[in-house]
Amino acid sequence: MDIILLIQAVIMGIVEGITEFLPISSTGYLILSADLMGFWTKEKVDLFVVVIQLGAILAVIYDYWGRLWHALTGLITGKAEGLNNPRQLGLSLIIATIPVMILGFIFADDIKTHLFNPVTVAIMLIIGGLLIFYVESRPKTIIAVEAEDVSFKTALMIGLFQCLALIPGTSRSGATIIGALWLGVSRKASAEFSFFLGIPVIIGAALLDLLKHSDVLTNSEDWLVLGVGTLVSFIVGLLLIRWLVAWVSLRDFKIFAWLRIITGVVVLIAAWVFGYQFAG
């Protein structure tokens, strides 16, 4: 058993748990972390980066089980306690999921082959940071206070924003939260709708990737490394979800914009000035 590899998997799990729900790109930071640590081969890292996100999204399911159950039962039966339109949230999430599912199914392998590298991540981190500053500087008119209030039209627009997150470094949470804010969804509702929207997208992507590429995991140690990373991401994600909701209810995302831009600039400097040869 390679203890160093397990320690690296724990670090990757911590990185995923911290970054999944922040607008800073969990995939981007996982790629950078793996590259800096020399973690695994590229083929295994590419699978690991996608599947480990299951841990963080399972934390969402655990923490929001009551509301998600109401959304599911409301979608099926048309009845849900305390909701005027019990099918609204469930249908909105389905509508918002369709665009990224279609594009992800068609282009996932090409994206992983050509864009899963630190320089692409750095560029998208910078672009995303600038977009956060732009959206946060605009006056906002709130059209949806709770996630259950998001209209089908707004859900489709959020789903189109989510497609940008197929490019590593963009951030799924960042694209959906900032996109929702731009469209007039409240800060709290933007964060929670983004959490819920990640459930079908991340579970679908992880299962599809496992189905297509599980052959790169050649022994029980490989599966253990993947399991450890996923478990750690679940634990860390569970600790951070409520904190983020409280944060966004009171503050803006400009601090994360600065973090994105600074990280992106540092990576580009490392690639250009110091001639650092990134893996993959």
Detailed description of the structure:
The protein has 280 residues and is mainly α. The protein has one domain (3-272). 76% of the residues lie in helices and 0% in strands. It has helices at 3-19, 26-37, 42-51, 53-63, 65-77, 88-115, 118-137, 152-163, 172-183, 187-213, 220-250, 254-272. Helix 6 (88-115) crosses helix 10 (187-213). It is globular, with a radius of gyration of 18 Å. Belongs to the UppP family. It holds the Pfam family BacA. One of its GO terms (molecular function) is undecaprenyl-diphosphatase activity.
Low-confidence stretches: none
Number of domains: 1
- Shape annotation: globular
Q: Could you tell me how far the N terminus lies from the C terminus, measured between alpha carbons in angstroms?
A: 25 Å
Summarize the helix and strand pattern as letters: HHHHHHHHHHHH
Q: Beta-sheet strand percentage?
A: under 5%
Number of helices: 12
pLDDT averaged over residues: 89
Let me know the number of strands: 0
Q: Tell me the structural class.
A: mainly alpha
Spatial extent as radius of gyration: 18 Å
Features:
mainly alpha
